[in-house]
Amino acid sequence: MSNLPNCPKCNSEYTYEDGLLFICPECAHEWSLEAEDQDAESAKVVRDANGNVLNDGDTVTVIKDLKVKGSSLVVKQGTKVKNIRLIDGDHDIDCKIDSLGAMKLKSEFVKKI
């Protein structure tokens, strides 16, 4: 018995391997396991400092004073940030802070309200 995955399109169990690709003879769908790995990475879960899952549109609070790089401004502890957007990268929160403007934050410095 083989350990090949079922077809993700039609769920057929009669898939076969051709080089780096898997092929479904019933619906002619071709895919690779690398594509499935990339899909899993794109569904990355972003968590706050307490381990709560963050979503687009959440409201968070800054848990420590953060210096704004390239200026003398500081985002104070307890600052409430509304309607966040999650993005890829080192700074995974894109937001607009009242009186400071648009900036990016790291999720490890915020907690979900």
UniProtKB/TrEMBL annotation:
PANTHER family: PROTEIN YJDM, PROTEIN YJDM-RELATED
Residue stretches making up the Protein YjdM C-terminal domain: 46-112
Alphabetical list of Pfam families matching this protein: YjdM, Zn_Ribbon_YjdM
Family affiliation: Belongs to the YjdM family.
Protein name: Protein YjdM
Organism in which the protein naturally occurs: Paenibacillus barcinonensis
Protein YjdM N-terminal domain mapped to chain residues: 4-32
